[in-house]
Amino acid sequence: MSGRVIVITSGKGGVGKTTASANIGVALANTGASVALVDMDIGLRNLDILMGLENRVVYNLVDVVEERCKLRQALVKDKRMPTLSLLPAAQTRDKTAVNAEQMKKLCIELKNTFEFVIIDCPAGIESGFQNAIAGAEEAIVITTPEMSAVRDADRIIGLLEARKDEIEQYRLVINRIRPAMVKSSDMMSVDDVLEILSIKLLGVVPEDEEIIISTNKGEPVSGTDNTRSGLAFRNIARRLRGEDVPLMDLDAPNSTWISRLVKFFAPVARV
Amino acid sequence: MSKIAIISRPDQGVLIDVSGCATLEEVIEQLNSTLQLSSHFWKGTPVDLNLGSLTLTEQQVAQLLALTKGLGVTPRQVFSLDLSTRSALDARGVTIGLGKPMSLPTVAPVEAEGALPVEVPQVTAEEPNITSITIDTTEDRIVMVETDETPDPEDAPKLVNFVDPNLKKEEEPTLFLKQGLRSGQAVSHSGNLVIIGDVNPGAEVVAAGDITVWGALRGIAHAGIGGNDNAEIRALKLEPIQIRISNAIARSPDRTGIKVGGPAAPESARLIEGKIRITRSYFE
Q1: Does B136 contact A at CB distance below 8 Å?
Q2: Domain membership flag for residue A271
Q3: Do B87 and B186 lie in a common domain?
Q4: pTM over 0.80
Q5: CATH code assigned at A47
Q6: Number of independent structural domains in chain A
Q7: Which of B185, B205, B241 to mutate to test the interface with A (most CBs of A within 10 A)?
Q8: If we measure between CA atoms, which residue out of B244, B225, B221, B213 comes closest to residue B172?
Q9: At B155, is the pLDDT very low, low, confident or very high (cuts 50, 70, 90)?
């Protein structure tokens, strides 16, 4: 089998790379695919916390690269989905612990076993980023509708374009959009962002308090039914698998008391 | 006359004068209460003992010598006025002091106005009055991590390579670290490890011997690395993500929110029949 290696990157920190990695990984696994989530943020590892798996980590990516253990020993099986595994980063090391060649080798080994290899890239454009994209064939660029995040995303897209031979396609996810603010022209719209970045759109994820709750619980939202952000991530996963899914209606009322009442009785997100 | 006097003589060391005591029991009591706190003080100092006219059998002499030795004092010579005591001392191979030992001039004791009574703790041979109750608190606190397959010797954890396999437990040095550990920081030591401070999540402590955390242990601790099944992990607040003892691994239960109920008292984790157990000790 030869799986797809997809790196999730943004340039700017705090726009939701790790959240997107966890949710896309869970959503892909929910479609029945075998998925490996790889945390490349060595020294600042978070993906295991979002997945609620930090207490199960024994070995990590650096142990694999330095041949202290076998790859299968370092992979942590998800507690909910048997087809989902996590390769955690080392916390007590730094970005220099691996190099691009080792990452390429590791990605080849992973895609022999998994249909999807999702790599959570660290912030920045230095060696950590370079190593994270080394073995990838596809990229998902995450941004928020803010000038600074869009500027950094543009920089990242430029760097990805420079590696056209290795990275076959790269698509955009706009995260944390607030439809009400967009309406009142206080926030950039999806079209505004696309106008600047001129890149294929993979999905739009609305701002959602549920993300904070899910991070604390260690259960990504895309594994639960009744959140709008979870639905957005599930749509992204379906698009990654080649399905044609329309963008969700961001204008659907979300937080009025009546909609909460409706949601209470029918806990399924409205599209 | 006081029952015991310690006389420092220029260039001749110290003379302990117990000639004021009437019985061996009194001598023992006096020596115990006066000398017990300062055993290291006598190191390298020549000490003489004056028994005065006390009559002792050979057995009692042996008892006395054992006591002084326990207090860190080995008399260079012993003065005695009693003939049978002298022969008993001689039989035990003790050098008998010649001539008249130095003594303090007799002064009538004066009760000092408002003097504070000084209480000197007694050393007794009896067990101290402590009963300990050990309570198993493992329930809901940790979950053993079962390994899917028997580990291949090739796969054996090689987390550290500094542990000398010939090191005996008695020889293990202890490292005191007067500092907490934050996420990403790691300490490993080939002996026992004592950390004065908190070990935060994301930090790792590894030791060949015991690990003691004077604070909260919230990260990962691995004691007894290299196969020491007797190693223990103890902390004032034991709430680790993972604890490993020798080759056994236990993890914390899964999170359900941000607040996790912490332990109420210091606890220790040890390996019992291949499983890591957490116990809390009460002293009453």
Answers
A1: no
A2: no
A3: no
A4: no
A5: 3.40.50.300
A6: 1
A7: B241
A8: B225
A9: very low
